[in-house]
From TrEMBL:
Protein name: Tetratricopeptide repeat-containing protein
Keywords: Repeat, Signal, TPR repeat
Signal peptide start and end residues: 1-23
Domain of life assignment: Bacteria
InterPro entries: TPR-like_helical_dom_sf
Amino acid sequence: MPAISVPLVAASVKLLAAALAFAEAPGLKSGHSVYDAATKLLKAKPKRLTALAGDLTHAAETLFADFPDTPPDAAALFSQMVEATLPDAPALAKAKLDPATACDAMLGKLTDPEHLRAPMPDLFRDLVTPTLTAMLGNRDVIADIEPALWAEVLQTGNRIDETTTDTNQRVRELQADMTAKIDRLIAEKEQVARDLHIKEGMLIGLARNYAQNASDFESALAGLQLALETAARQQARNALPSNLGEAVDSVIAKVDDLNDQDQMAAADDLLRAEMNRLDAEIEERKAVQSRIIDKAIAQAIYQADADALADRTLRRIQLDGPSREDQFKRLRHEVLRRYNEGLRTGVPFVLNAAIGLARRCIDIAPTPYLEAMAQNDLANALQTKGTRTEGPEGAKLLAEAVTAFRASFDVCTRMDHPVEWAVTQNNLAISLRNQGIRTDGLAGAELLADAVTAYRAALEVSTRTDHPVEWAVTQNNLAGALQSQGTRTEGPAGAKLLAEAVTACRAALEVYTRTDHPVEWAMTQNNLAISLRNQGIRTDGLAGAELLAEAVAAFRAALEVRTRANHPVQWAQTQNNLANALSDQGNRTEGPAGADLLAEAVTACRAALEVRTRADHPADWAGTHHNLALALLSRADHDTTTDPRPDLTEALAAVEAALTVFDPVNMSFNHTEATRLRDAIKTRLDALPPR
């Protein structure tokens, strides 16, 4: 199949615009056959397609004369508008193949007042949008265009011909403590790099940078994949014709050569120098500088340098010279894009990039209100990174999140911005609760109390009458904080807090119905079950048994929506929580029925660990191992168990695994509980008679 050129893609759009206009004209019976013929010709040779384009354009011009309420010169104007705005393949890709977005981008290119006067923009949109929809919705069209373009780009690449021995020799020259990790990364992605025509030196450099940047192998692997994909896009761009001049092309070529030779720092230095040189020539050479900065952004991704990425992204936006308000709007869009990407991928570099971008948003905010919004964005990114980070660094990030949330209150007061104030109170409470969960003793209790106070403050504005969904969100979150407080508080005070948590969950379910909000309904069912279970633990006799049964039923209800296929992380969370309730039931039930409940608890814990791996979810992995140890200890002590040693031995291994994550400084509460459990299991094992 011959490759389809970029001009041919543009001609295809013009062709189909004319064809669709012809097809949809009132009273023209033959129009659809013309449109069908045009669509089929997308697979034809370029000369056939180009020839027919002129004929159909002429047909469209004739057609405009018959349109009601259309200016006499509409056909000529439309032809000019199409000619001036034809999108190429990169433009369609930038629009993410969305017809409406692509059409808006086309209209955005128009500057002639004649083109912009009514009804020409609406007429243009009505004709071009469905045309693009038809073209981009055709799987054959996409299959023809995209692979051919890639084939044309990638034919110029060079294949890697260095031997595995050479690669291993280069790897052995890297730092000794990173050799195994880098070697494994290269082994995982060597074929991908070869397929993308990424050279050996660049692969080694990327592997080293992401091995040093990420704390675990899976994150490093995801970061390396991101860098390789960026490199492939850069290669594709390099293969396209350039009109930027030999000097710029030479810099790009030198950067690529340095990267290919594993000299990324030198490549970055070269790019920095080139950007500084261009500062004096911004107006005359804006297109040149834009190309260099785009390359530098890619370089920052290669090196997992979040600060450089943030600086260069801001510089790229400022290069276009928009107003300060527009600069802020565009930069904040990048903050949210990187933040959502970090939530999805879990790559630390991406969340760090969101944090860096948010800090720069604060620096350029044109008004105090927008600065407060940027403070909120920063706090959310810090909070997410903090909850995913172990040890002192995680505690530091959560503390910074709390500080950022509080800073936004200087502007977002309840009087001036009540809705934003309530949202920030809710987000602040989430950070305070996460801090409290990680903190033992009085300090942890005070943090949880602060979280409850912030949630209750939010509910003063987010009422059920005025903001029912936000009210339900906050009620659900309040229930979680009350539950955390209640489990740490003894006696009647603790029981009261748990009862309040149940009440808050049931209130949220009045809005979060399964029909209207299935995901939120399942989340709240899970949280309700946690509070019911904690109530049941503290309640003796039949009343306690009924509360535990209600908890198990609520967990199972949540699992009807939280399936492993659709919601794996939430499924694992609910399986873990279900295991705790089943274990509590088993402890209170004698005979085979109790043994069955404990077996179900162990099974649920092991199911959760299929998703909660140490690499991806270290804190959750540790928590589930702690719960598994509790279930195994309960089974060892059950009246049906004749030999407790196997369960006790496995329980000890599980809690010791948890203690490899629960550190005594920044997860002090979890560490204290796990240490007590480990000592109790050891005492039980020591008391057994020798075999």
